[in-house]
Amino acid sequence: MYFGPNHPGIEGNYAIRVRLKGDEVLKAEADGGYLHRGFEKLMEERLWIQNVALVPRICVPDPVPMEETYARAVEMLGGLKVPERAQWIRVMVLEMSRIAAHLFMVGGHAATLGLYTNMFWGVALRELLLDRFEELTGGRIYHMYITPGGVRRDLPDGFLGRLAAVLDEIERRLPDYDDLFFDNAVVVRRTRGIGTLTQAEALAWGVTGPNLRATGLAFDLRHEDPYLVYDRLAFDIPTEREGDALARARVRRAEIRQSIRILRQVIGHLPGITGPVRCPLPNPLAWNLPAGDVYARTESSKGELGFYVVSNGGPKPWRVHVRGPSAMHAVQVLERLCVGARLEDVAQIMFSLDACPPEVDR
Predict the structure, then answer these.
(1) For 168-185, what is each residue's pLDDT tens digit?
(2) How far apart are CA 153 and CA 163, in angstroms?
(3) How many angstroms separate the CA atoms of 329 and 242, rounded?
(4) pLDDT for residue 11 is more than 80
(5) Could you tell me the pLDDT band of residue 271, with boundaries at 50, 70 and 90?
(6) pLDDT of residue 38
(7) Within the chain, what is the greatest distance between any pair of CA atoms?
(8) What percentage of the chain exceeds 90 in pLDDT?
(9) 276-314: pLDDT as tens digits
(10) Cα–Cα distance between 66 and 72 in angstroms, integer?
(11) What does residue 161 show for φ and ψ, rounded to 5 degrees?
(12) Which among 241, 261, 262, 238 is positioned nearest to 251, based on CA atoms?
């Protein structure tokens, strides 16, 4: 049976071919489809600065980590120092994107169970964050805001106050999500024990991010390998122990609250941090970065995101490889977890892993 891509429980253009015995899945094979693809080779044909507009499309619901990781790789190659104010602003947009992505995922997961109210709520709250992104960058989905050397522009007047009001509204609504979804007896019975992943399996299969933390391992790059100003911020690493679909959803719910906590610290610090928001760059149309190779990594909402970039001293990347978490979660892990599951549980296993289809066929 071809499960997707028109099925509401499948993300984007994705599909899963399943072999069934009655309602039980005997074999599952992921199909990434054709949408946004071939990014790595496309990046090798474009100038360093042109890739700023390309990389956000690798993960549509959470594009900011793509911008930040690529920019940091270029900065490592070029020896660029990002101004302090720009580092704080980068943390701000990263955490805004994390909340927006988690709201999108939780809503989609609820829809696989027929709970569309939760999906509508999630999209509506996410729109409030997209309003702030539009005000800041001019774009609601793709922002191209983080560039090598800093960010494109400083914050508009009054932006931090309007962002704080959005955070207040999201936090006010979280108990409603608990009542409707996370503590709903029907949801708990449909998700508990579904798609269970042990910590040993997670480590062996390359699982990262919330999916790994749902097995009880408190590993987060923002703590373990801090970048930007994360080492100056206080936040916890939420974990669960069961490793099932319910645990993965609850980790993301807890991460929303931690991202709000981080953002409130950023809002408190930013007014006292002055200075430029980007460092001087040479002519971007004739910019030859020194030869060498670097690996930059970021904790995205999906897990560990890495860019391995090689320069041969020319105006374009010589080689680019994207280490995206979805390539692991939506292929190797998804195919394994579906085996033995019932047909009606395939969709929620897919959504509980929270993958970005374009990142698979990058």
Answers:
(1) 999 999 999 899 988 999
(2) 17
(3) 17
(4) no
(5) very high
(6) 83
(7) 65
(8) 75
(9) 999 999 898 889 999 999 999 999 999 999 999 999 999
(10) 10
(11) -65, -40
(12) 238
Instruction: Kindly tell me the sign of the dihedral angle through the C-alpha atoms of 320, 321, 324, 326.
Output: positive
- Average pLDDT in the 230-259 region? 95
Q: How far apart are CA 187 and CA 100, in angstroms?
A: 22
The count of structural domains within the chain is 1
Instruction: Give the integer Cα–Cα distance in Å for 89 and 270.
Output: 8
Return the structure tokens found at 183: 């503590």
117: how many CB neighbours lie within 10 A of its CB? 14
In angstroms, the CA 278 to CA 21 distance is 59
C-beta contacts of 257-263 below 8 A and 24+ residues apart = 257/171, 257/174, 259/95, 259/96, 259/98, 259/99, 259/102, 260/99, 260/167, 260/170, 260/171, 261/234, 261/235, 262/91, 262/95, 262/233, 262/235, 263/92, 263/95, 263/96, 263/163, 263/167
- State the Cα–Cα distance between residues 130 and 198, nearest whole angstrom: 35
CA distance 42 to 107: 32
Q: By residue range, what is the domain housing residue 188?
A: 2-360
- Domain holding 196: CATH number? 1.10.645.10
Q: Are 40 and 312 in contact (CB under 8 A)?
A: no
Q: Take residue 326 and report the two structure tokens written for it.
A: 């979805």
The arithmetic mean of pLDDT across residues 256-281, rounded, is 95
pLDDT in the model for residue 317: 96
Q: For residue 7, what pLDDT is reported?
A: 66
User: Two tokens at 303?
Assistant: 């897990």
